[in-house]
Specification:
The chain contains seven helices and 17 strands. The protein is of the alpha+beta class. It folds into two domains: about 15-190; about 260-390. A hairpin with a 6-residue loop joins strand 8 (about 165-170) and strand 9 (about 175-180). The N and C termini lie far apart (about 75 Å).
Length: about 400
């Protein structure tokens, strides 16, 4: 019975193992000839010409030794890169633009042969490398797994899956520099930047004043008279108390209920405003993070997402959605969900929110965020690009 089972399962196991070894050996490797390799090749050519011209057996022996050294060097460096696996373990919550510590694990699948002089480097092509500096392993014993703490920085939000790292070596003689890309099986979700971008702090100061005024102005029961604070509305100034004290004093009213800040991100972005949309996503993350830190109730919405903080979860649910969100042309705007909330709208087409129901909203359009929209056409009221603009 055991022999019959092995006859059915055994060949499949052998083929899978052979396929894994073949994949590790035939891993796509990029070659770069170093300065030492060029000089050594030139020396081989010179010795070869001298041996042919003089018919000296000693020169032929030296030429054979040099050629065998070059071939052995290529074979050993290829074997050093074969059978290496990389795993990358980042913290659970990572924001773009921040340098954070992470764990790097390198495993040598070869049972008996070690790998020497291995560098782990970033392999980004269109963005800054994830690793702040290469990681060097002098030797990786066969069958061993080595761990290293590294500093990483992700430039943009999104899901990072494959081809972000590479193994690099010049072992043993430095004639060739070989690089093998690494495919990570672990997906890392990077949140948008929650740090202040150009113009964000000024915008936040304005929003803080407007939100504070909105909160205090909704109540009807008199609470107290206090000194005026920056960015507050002048309609609550108590001129009698001001004249009596010599400084601006305002009337403060008790809030009838806890207020909510509603953030609406418009996913309908006209062509040419893709970079602005990325900045708007960062602005949403920055404002939502700040409000969550102030223990303010947040209602975050888009055309296909609706989430209340803290009733339905924590701030990381919003940040994870923003990490993967993409603009979707043709999505119509929706009405405010709560008339008593303070609405903030981020849209590339402010004219789309001319509905009276959005009259009290703070609309943040392309002119409010510092981003270059090179050759970007100005949107028409219906959200489509203006004809003839360019």
């Amino acid at each position: 019975m055991t022999q019959q089972r092995w006859a059915l399962v055994g060949p499949a196991i052998v083929r899978a193992r052979f396929s894994q070894i073949r994949h590790l050996l035939l891993r796509r490797i990029r070659y770069k000839v170093t300065r030492g390799g060029v000089l050594f090749t030139a020396a081989i050519v010179m010795v070869g010409l001298a041996a042919v011209a003089s018919a000296n057996n000693l020169l032929f022996l030296i030429l054979a030794t040099m050629l065998s050294t070059l071939m052995v060097s290529g074979l050993i460096s290829r074997l050093c890169l074969a059978g290496l696996e990389l795993d990358f373990l980042a913290p659970e919550h990572v924001s773009a633009g921040r340098t954070i510590p992470a764990k790097l694990y390198v495993r040598n699948l070869k049972f008996f042969m070690p790998s020497f002089s291995i560098h782990v480097v970033g392999a980004e092509q269109d963005a800054p490398p994830v690793l702040q500096s290469p990681v060097y392993f002098p030797v990786i014993p066969g069958g061993a797994t080595l761990e290293e703490t590294v500093q990483v920085r992700f430039a943009r939000r999104g899901a990072y899956k494959q081809n972000r790292f590479a193994f690099h070596t010049k072992f043993p003689f430095g004639f060739l520099e070989k690089t093998a890309r690494v495919i990570l099986r672990r997906e890392v979700v990077i949140y948008p930047s929650i740090d202040a971008q150009p113009g964000f702090e000024d915008l936040l100061a304005d929003l803080a004043g407007e939100i504070e005024t909105h909160y205090r102005g909704l109540g009807r029961d008199f609470y107290r008279i206090r000194p005026y604070e920056a960015f507050e509305s002048a309609r609550h100034v108590d001129w009698k108390a001001t004249a009596h004290t010599g400084g601006l004093q305002v009337r403060e009213f008790a809030r009838e209920q806890e207020q909510t800040v509603e953030i609406f991100l418009d996913l309908d972005v006209p062509p040419g405003f893709e970079e602005w949309f990325e900045q708007a996503v960062n602005c949403c993350a920055f404002v939502a993070w700040w409000l969550a830190g102030k223990a303010t109730s947040v209602h975050f919405r888009t055309q296909d997402f609706d989430f209340r903080l803290p009733e339905e979860g924590d701030i990381y649910t919003i940040l994870k959605y923003l990490a993967l969100v993409a603009h979707k042309p043709g999505k119509p705007p929706e009405a405010p969900a709560d008339e008593a909330s303070f609405p903030i709208v981020l849209t590339a087409s402010p004219q789309r929110f001319a509905d009276p129901r959005w009259a009290s909203a703070r609309v943040i359009g392309p002119g409010a965020l510092a981003i270059e929209t090179r050759d970007a056409p100005q949107p028409e009221p219906d959200g489509s690009p203006r004809k003839g603009a360019g």
